[in-house]
Protein backbone atom coordinates (compact mmCIF):
# COMPACT_ATOMS: atom_id res chain seq x y z
CA UNK A 1 0.00 0.00 0.00
CA UNK A 2 1.21 3.51 -0.79
CA UNK A 3 2.62 5.29 2.22
CA UNK A 4 1.55 8.77 3.35
CA UNK A 5 4.38 10.36 5.31
CA UNK A 6 3.23 12.67 8.11
CA UNK A 7 5.14 15.53 9.74
CA UNK A 8 3.54 16.93 12.87
CA UNK A 9 4.46 20.43 14.05
CA UNK A 10 3.99 20.90 17.81
CA UNK A 11 3.61 18.20 20.42
CA UNK A 12 1.57 19.42 23.41
CA UNK A 13 -2.08 18.57 24.17
CA UNK A 14 -3.28 18.65 20.54
CA UNK A 15 -0.07 17.00 19.35
CA UNK A 16 -0.76 14.08 21.66
CA UNK A 17 -4.37 13.82 20.44
CA UNK A 18 -3.28 13.89 16.78
CA UNK A 19 -0.48 11.37 17.37
CA UNK A 20 -2.94 8.95 18.92
CA UNK A 21 -5.18 9.41 15.87
CA UNK A 22 -2.41 8.75 13.32
CA UNK A 23 -1.29 5.70 15.29
CA UNK A 24 -4.72 4.14 15.72
CA UNK A 25 -6.61 5.07 12.52
CA UNK A 26 -5.00 2.46 10.22
CA UNK A 27 -5.49 -0.24 12.85
CA UNK A 28 -9.28 0.16 13.05
CA UNK A 29 -10.26 1.61 9.67
CA UNK A 30 -9.56 0.45 6.12
CA UNK A 31 -7.51 3.28 4.71
CA UNK A 32 -6.49 3.62 1.07
CA UNK A 33 -3.06 4.99 2.09
CA UNK A 34 -0.85 3.95 5.00
CA UNK A 35 0.01 6.89 7.31
CA UNK A 36 3.62 6.80 8.45
CA UNK A 37 4.50 8.94 11.49
CA UNK A 38 7.74 10.17 9.95
CA UNK A 39 8.80 13.26 11.86
CA UNK A 40 7.76 15.56 14.69
CA UNK A 41 8.95 19.18 14.83
CA UNK A 42 9.35 21.14 18.07
CA UNK A 43 11.41 24.18 19.05
CA UNK A 44 13.38 22.54 21.87
CA UNK A 45 15.51 19.58 20.71
CA UNK A 46 15.32 17.64 23.98
CA UNK A 47 11.59 18.05 24.45
CA UNK A 48 10.86 17.28 20.80
CA UNK A 49 12.95 14.08 20.93
CA UNK A 50 11.23 12.97 24.14
CA UNK A 51 7.80 13.72 22.64
CA UNK A 52 8.63 11.84 19.43
CA UNK A 53 9.67 8.85 21.47
CA UNK A 54 6.61 8.94 23.73
CA UNK A 55 4.04 9.65 20.96
CA UNK A 56 5.43 7.25 18.35
CA UNK A 57 7.22 9.43 15.78
CA UNK A 58 10.27 8.06 13.96
CA UNK A 59 12.37 11.18 14.54
CA UNK A 60 12.33 14.76 15.80
CA UNK A 61 13.60 18.01 14.28
CA UNK A 62 13.70 21.58 15.59
CA UNK A 63 13.16 23.42 12.29
CA UNK A 64 9.65 22.89 10.90
CA UNK A 65 10.77 24.27 7.52
CA UNK A 66 13.13 21.32 7.06
CA UNK A 67 10.18 18.90 6.77
CA UNK A 68 8.89 20.77 3.70
CA UNK A 69 11.98 19.72 1.75
CA UNK A 70 11.57 16.02 2.49
CA UNK A 71 10.23 13.60 -0.13
CA UNK A 72 9.03 11.21 2.56
CA UNK A 73 6.69 13.89 3.97
CA UNK A 74 3.33 14.24 2.21
CA UNK A 75 1.22 15.75 5.00
CA UNK A 76 1.95 18.57 7.46
CA UNK A 77 -0.18 18.35 10.60
CA UNK A 78 -0.19 21.71 12.45
CA UNK A 79 -0.68 21.46 16.24
CA UNK A 80 0.96 24.72 17.29
CA UNK A 81 -0.62 27.90 18.77
CA UNK A 82 -2.71 29.96 16.34
CA UNK A 83 -0.12 32.68 15.67
CA UNK A 84 1.96 30.20 13.63
CA UNK A 85 -0.84 28.54 11.63
CA UNK A 86 -0.87 30.87 8.63
CA UNK A 87 2.89 30.86 8.09
CA UNK A 88 3.26 27.09 8.39
CA UNK A 89 0.12 26.18 6.44
CA UNK A 90 0.85 28.50 3.51
CA UNK A 91 4.49 27.37 3.28
CA UNK A 92 3.45 23.71 3.44
CA UNK A 93 0.71 24.05 0.81
CA UNK A 94 3.02 26.00 -1.49
CA UNK A 95 5.58 23.20 -1.05
CA UNK A 96 2.96 20.69 -2.23
CA UNK A 97 2.20 19.14 1.19
CA UNK A 98 -1.37 18.34 2.25
CA UNK A 99 -2.25 20.20 5.46
CA UNK A 100 -4.32 19.34 8.51
CA UNK A 101 -4.49 22.46 10.71
CA UNK A 102 -5.77 22.68 14.29
CA UNK A 103 -8.60 25.10 15.06
CA UNK A 104 -9.22 27.97 15.10
CA UNK A 105 -7.70 28.10 11.66
CA UNK A 106 -6.01 31.47 12.24
CA UNK A 107 -5.84 34.40 14.63
CA UNK A 108 -7.26 36.98 12.21
CA UNK A 109 -9.51 37.12 9.17
CA UNK A 110 -6.60 38.45 7.10
CA UNK A 111 -4.53 35.35 7.94
CA UNK A 112 -7.49 33.08 7.25
CA UNK A 113 -8.06 34.74 3.85
CA UNK A 114 -4.40 34.14 2.92
CA UNK A 115 -4.70 30.51 4.05
CA UNK A 116 -7.90 29.93 2.08
CA UNK A 117 -6.24 31.42 -1.00
CA UNK A 118 -3.20 29.15 -0.54
CA UNK A 119 -5.56 26.17 -0.20
CA UNK A 120 -7.34 27.12 -3.41
CA UNK A 121 -4.00 27.40 -5.27
CA UNK A 122 -2.94 24.06 -3.83
CA UNK A 123 -6.23 22.30 -4.69
CA UNK A 124 -5.61 23.10 -8.36
CA UNK A 125 -2.45 20.95 -7.99
CA UNK A 126 -4.24 18.15 -6.12
CA UNK A 127 -2.99 19.26 -2.68
CA UNK A 128 -5.60 19.19 0.12
CA UNK A 129 -6.21 21.25 3.27
CA UNK A 130 -8.52 20.69 6.22
CA UNK A 131 -9.25 22.39 9.57
CA UNK A 132 -9.32 20.25 12.71
CA UNK A 133 -12.80 20.91 14.05
CA UNK A 134 -12.77 17.48 15.62
CA UNK A 135 -16.22 17.51 17.27
CA UNK A 136 -17.85 17.12 13.85
CA UNK A 137 -16.54 13.59 14.02
CA UNK A 138 -18.31 12.65 17.25
CA UNK A 139 -20.82 10.00 16.11
CA UNK A 140 -23.76 11.58 17.98
CA UNK A 141 -23.19 14.88 16.16
CA UNK A 142 -22.92 13.04 12.84
CA UNK A 143 -26.26 11.42 13.62
CA UNK A 144 -27.68 14.85 14.55
CA UNK A 145 -26.68 16.18 11.14
CA UNK A 146 -28.24 13.15 9.40
CA UNK A 147 -31.53 13.64 11.26
CA UNK A 148 -31.67 17.31 10.30
CA UNK A 149 -30.76 16.53 6.67
CA UNK A 150 -33.46 13.83 6.54
CA UNK A 151 -36.03 16.40 7.66
CA UNK A 152 -36.79 14.66 10.97
CA UNK A 153 -36.74 18.04 12.73
CA UNK A 154 -38.66 19.91 10.04
CA UNK A 155 -37.92 23.61 9.75
CA UNK A 156 -35.22 24.66 12.21
CA UNK A 157 -36.22 27.50 14.54
CA UNK A 158 -33.63 27.54 17.32
CA UNK A 159 -30.10 26.42 18.00
CA UNK A 160 -28.82 26.71 21.56
CA UNK A 161 -25.09 26.08 21.83
CA UNK A 162 -22.79 26.23 24.82
CA UNK A 163 -19.18 25.28 25.34
CA UNK A 164 -18.51 25.35 29.06
CA UNK A 165 -15.18 24.64 30.77
CA UNK A 166 -13.71 25.75 34.12
CA UNK A 167 -9.96 25.29 33.89
CA UNK A 168 -9.14 28.96 34.59
CA UNK A 169 -11.88 29.83 37.09
CA UNK A 170 -9.16 29.86 39.79
CA UNK A 171 -7.46 33.31 39.60
CA UNK A 172 -4.22 31.57 40.61
CA UNK A 173 -4.23 29.45 37.43
CA UNK A 174 -1.15 30.64 35.50
CA UNK A 175 -1.07 32.45 32.18
CA UNK A 176 -0.92 29.93 29.38
CA UNK A 177 -0.50 30.85 25.72
CA UNK A 178 -4.27 30.37 25.41
CA UNK A 179 -4.66 33.58 27.50
CA UNK A 180 -2.32 35.62 25.31
CA UNK A 181 -3.98 37.42 22.38
CA UNK A 182 -0.73 37.56 20.43
CA UNK A 183 -0.52 33.77 20.46
CA UNK A 184 -4.16 32.66 20.57
CA UNK A 185 -6.00 35.46 18.74
CA UNK A 186 -8.84 35.44 21.26
CA UNK A 187 -9.83 33.55 24.40
CA UNK A 188 -12.92 31.44 25.00
CA UNK A 189 -14.33 32.83 21.75
CA UNK A 190 -11.70 31.34 19.41
CA UNK A 191 -10.60 28.40 21.53
CA UNK A 192 -13.98 26.84 22.24
CA UNK A 193 -16.58 29.20 20.73
CA UNK A 194 -15.13 28.33 17.32
CA UNK A 195 -16.04 24.67 17.94
CA UNK A 196 -19.72 25.40 18.54
CA UNK A 197 -19.85 27.73 15.53
CA UNK A 198 -18.50 24.94 13.34
CA UNK A 199 -20.57 22.19 14.98
CA UNK A 200 -23.88 24.06 14.68
CA UNK A 201 -23.23 25.06 11.06
CA UNK A 202 -22.31 21.41 10.39
CA UNK A 203 -25.45 20.02 12.02
CA UNK A 204 -27.78 22.50 10.34
CA UNK A 205 -26.01 22.50 6.97
CA UNK A 206 -26.41 26.28 7.22
CA UNK A 207 -24.23 29.33 7.86
CA UNK A 208 -24.41 32.17 10.37
CA UNK A 209 -25.35 35.44 8.69
CA UNK A 210 -25.21 38.02 11.51
CA UNK A 211 -24.36 38.23 15.20
CA UNK A 212 -24.60 40.44 18.26
CA UNK A 213 -22.41 39.61 21.22
CA UNK A 214 -20.60 40.54 24.36
CA UNK A 215 -17.33 39.40 25.91
CA UNK A 216 -15.78 39.65 29.35
CA UNK A 217 -12.42 39.10 31.03
CA UNK A 218 -13.11 38.30 34.69
CA UNK A 219 -9.49 37.91 35.83
CA UNK A 220 -7.24 40.47 34.17
CA UNK A 221 -3.89 39.62 35.83
CA UNK A 222 -2.48 36.16 36.50
CA UNK A 223 0.76 34.54 37.63
CA UNK A 224 3.21 33.89 34.83
CA UNK A 225 3.79 30.20 34.15
CA UNK A 226 7.20 28.70 34.88
CA UNK A 227 6.13 25.64 32.99
CA UNK A 228 3.01 24.83 31.01
CA UNK A 229 1.65 21.67 29.49
CA UNK A 230 -1.80 21.13 28.07
CA UNK A 231 -4.26 23.11 30.19
CA UNK A 232 -2.23 23.18 33.41
CA UNK A 233 0.97 24.88 34.50
CA UNK A 234 3.12 25.97 37.44
CA UNK A 235 2.70 29.55 38.68
CA UNK A 236 5.63 31.87 39.32
CA UNK A 237 5.70 34.88 41.72
CA UNK A 238 5.49 37.35 38.85
CA UNK A 239 2.21 38.25 37.17
CA UNK A 240 1.19 39.35 33.70
CA UNK A 241 -1.97 40.63 31.96
CA UNK A 242 -4.67 38.41 30.48
CA UNK A 243 -5.22 39.83 27.00
CA UNK A 244 -8.17 37.70 25.85
CA UNK A 245 -11.82 37.14 26.78
CA UNK A 246 -12.69 34.67 29.54
CA UNK A 247 -16.25 34.36 28.24
CA UNK A 248 -18.06 35.24 25.01
CA UNK A 249 -21.83 35.20 24.49
CA UNK A 250 -23.66 35.98 21.30
CA UNK A 251 -26.91 35.70 19.41
CA UNK A 252 -26.93 34.70 15.76
CA UNK A 253 -29.22 34.59 12.75
CA UNK A 254 -28.58 31.75 10.32
CA UNK A 255 -29.00 32.27 6.57
CA UNK A 256 -31.82 29.71 6.56
CA UNK A 257 -33.81 31.68 9.15
CA UNK A 258 -32.93 29.88 12.41
CA UNK A 259 -32.02 31.86 15.53
CA UNK A 260 -29.00 30.81 17.59
CA UNK A 261 -27.69 31.57 21.06
CA UNK A 262 -24.05 30.81 21.80
CA UNK A 263 -22.08 30.79 25.05
CA UNK A 264 -18.37 30.01 25.36
CA UNK A 265 -16.69 30.23 28.75
CA UNK A 266 -13.81 28.75 30.70
CA UNK A 267 -15.39 29.98 33.97
CA UNK A 268 -18.36 27.59 34.26
CA UNK A 269 -17.32 26.05 37.57
CA UNK A 270 -17.84 22.30 37.53
CA UNK A 271 -18.26 22.03 33.77
CA UNK A 272 -15.16 20.34 32.41
CA UNK A 273 -15.87 19.94 28.71
CA UNK A 274 -19.58 20.58 28.33
CA UNK A 275 -20.07 21.19 24.62
CA UNK A 276 -23.87 21.26 24.49
CA UNK A 277 -26.10 21.77 21.50
CA UNK A 278 -29.89 21.82 21.33
CA UNK A 279 -31.76 22.19 18.07
CA UNK A 280 -35.50 22.85 17.93
CA UNK A 281 -37.42 22.39 14.70
CA UNK A 282 -41.07 22.31 13.63
CA UNK A 283 -41.13 18.50 13.72
CA UNK A 284 -38.78 17.71 16.60
CA UNK A 285 -35.75 18.55 18.70
CA UNK A 286 -32.23 17.28 19.40
CA UNK A 287 -30.01 17.73 22.43
CA UNK A 288 -26.36 16.76 22.94
CA UNK A 289 -23.86 17.20 25.77
CA UNK A 290 -20.26 16.14 25.22
CA UNK A 291 -20.03 15.13 28.90
CA UNK A 292 -22.37 12.28 27.86
CA UNK A 293 -20.95 12.05 24.36
CA UNK A 294 -22.30 8.64 23.35
CA UNK A 295 -25.88 9.87 23.72
CA UNK A 296 -28.11 12.00 21.48
CA UNK A 297 -31.52 13.07 22.81
CA UNK A 298 -34.22 13.15 20.12
CA UNK A 299 -37.79 14.39 20.48
CA UNK A 300 -40.05 13.35 17.62
CA UNK A 301 -42.86 15.92 17.60
CA UNK A 302 -44.89 13.86 15.14
CA UNK A 303 -45.50 11.10 17.68
CA UNK A 304 -48.72 10.72 19.64
CA UNK A 305 -48.43 13.40 22.35
CA UNK A 306 -49.62 10.95 25.01
CA UNK A 307 -46.39 8.97 24.64
CA UNK A 308 -43.99 11.45 22.97
CA UNK A 309 -40.91 12.48 24.91
CA UNK A 310 -37.18 12.91 24.52
CA UNK A 311 -35.68 9.59 23.47
CA UNK A 312 -32.16 8.81 24.70
CA UNK A 313 -30.40 7.33 21.66
CA UNK A 314 -27.19 5.55 22.65
CA UNK A 315 -25.06 6.26 19.58
CA UNK A 316 -23.04 3.05 19.63
CA UNK A 317 -24.78 0.97 16.94
CA UNK A 318 -22.73 -0.20 13.94
CA UNK A 319 -24.93 1.86 11.59
CA UNK A 320 -24.07 5.11 13.41
CA UNK A 321 -21.31 7.26 11.86
CA UNK A 322 -17.83 5.72 12.36
CA UNK A 323 -19.01 3.34 15.09
CA UNK A 324 -18.96 0.14 13.01
CA UNK A 325 -15.16 0.14 12.99
CA UNK A 326 -14.92 0.12 16.80
CA UNK A 327 -16.50 -1.89 19.60
CA UNK A 328 -19.72 -3.87 19.95
CA UNK A 329 -22.89 -1.83 20.61
CA UNK A 330 -22.96 -0.14 24.00
CA UNK A 331 -19.20 -0.08 24.58
CA UNK A 332 -18.80 3.62 23.77
CA UNK A 333 -16.20 6.03 22.45
CA UNK A 334 -14.23 8.95 23.97
CA UNK A 335 -12.62 12.32 23.25
CA UNK A 336 -9.75 10.87 21.22
CA UNK A 337 -11.98 8.97 18.78
CA UNK A 338 -13.11 12.21 17.08
CA UNK A 339 -9.46 12.92 16.22
CA UNK A 340 -9.09 9.43 14.79
CA UNK A 341 -12.20 9.89 12.63
CA UNK A 342 -10.78 13.23 11.48
CA UNK A 343 -7.61 11.51 10.27
CA UNK A 344 -9.65 8.78 8.57
CA UNK A 345 -11.72 11.32 6.61
CA UNK A 346 -8.60 13.33 5.78
CA UNK A 347 -6.68 10.33 4.42
CA UNK A 348 -9.67 9.13 2.39
CA UNK A 349 -10.14 12.58 0.84
CA UNK A 350 -6.44 12.83 -0.03
CA UNK A 351 -6.62 9.41 -1.70
CA UNK A 352 -9.83 10.25 -3.56
CA UNK A 353 -8.58 13.67 -4.60
CA UNK A 354 -11.47 15.51 -2.94
CA UNK A 355 -11.49 18.43 -0.51
CA UNK A 356 -11.81 17.19 3.07
CA UNK A 357 -14.39 19.14 5.10
CA UNK A 358 -14.09 21.43 6.91
CA UNK A 359 -12.01 23.06 4.19
CA UNK A 360 -9.97 26.22 4.66
CA UNK A 361 -12.91 28.08 3.07
CA UNK A 362 -15.09 26.70 5.90
CA UNK A 363 -12.42 27.73 8.42
CA UNK A 364 -12.41 31.24 6.97
CA UNK A 365 -16.20 31.43 7.39
CA UNK A 366 -15.85 30.51 11.09
CA UNK A 367 -13.10 33.12 11.43
CA UNK A 368 -15.44 35.75 10.01
CA UNK A 369 -18.09 34.81 12.59
CA UNK A 370 -15.52 35.18 15.41
CA UNK A 371 -14.42 38.57 14.06
CA UNK A 372 -18.03 39.74 13.76
CA UNK A 373 -18.65 38.77 17.41
CA UNK A 374 -15.60 40.78 18.49
CA UNK A 375 -16.70 43.77 16.42
CA UNK A 376 -20.20 43.50 17.83
CA UNK A 377 -18.92 43.26 21.41
CA UNK A 378 -16.97 46.48 20.81
CA UNK A 379 -19.82 48.38 19.12
CA UNK A 380 -22.81 46.90 20.95
CA UNK A 381 -24.66 46.40 17.66
CA UNK A 382 -25.46 43.56 15.24
CA UNK A 383 -22.71 42.76 12.73
CA UNK A 384 -22.94 40.98 9.39
CA UNK A 385 -20.59 38.02 8.94
C1 LIG B 1 -8.98 24.03 25.67
O1 LIG B 1 -10.03 24.85 25.95
C2 LIG B 1 -9.27 22.89 24.69
O2 LIG B 1 -8.16 22.07 24.77
C3 LIG B 1 -9.45 23.33 23.24
O3 LIG B 1 -8.33 24.06 22.78
C4 LIG B 1 -9.70 22.11 22.37
O4 LIG B 1 -9.91 22.50 21.03
C5 LIG B 1 -10.90 21.32 22.91
O5 LIG B 1 -11.07 20.14 22.18
C6 LIG B 1 -10.72 20.98 24.36
O6 LIG B 1 -10.43 22.15 25.09
UniProtKB/TrEMBL annotation:
Keyword Flavoprotein attached: no
Every GFO/IDH/MocA-like oxidoreductase domain range: 144-286
Pfam families reported for this sequence: GFO_IDH_MocA, GFO_IDH_MocA_C3
Keyword Oxidoreductase: yes
An example Gene Ontology molecular-function term: nucleotide binding
UniProt keyword terms in alphabetical order: Oxidoreductase
Family annotation (InterPro entries): Gfo/Idh/MocA-like_OxRdtase_N, Gfo/Idh/MocA_oxidrdct_glycsds, GFO_IDH_MocA-like_dom, NAD(P)-bd_dom_sf
Domain Gfo/Idh/MocA-like oxidoreductase N-terminal, residue spans: 5-124
Name of the protein in question: Predicted dehydrogenase
Lineage: Bacteria, Bacillati, Actinomycetota, Actinomycetes, Pseudonocardiales
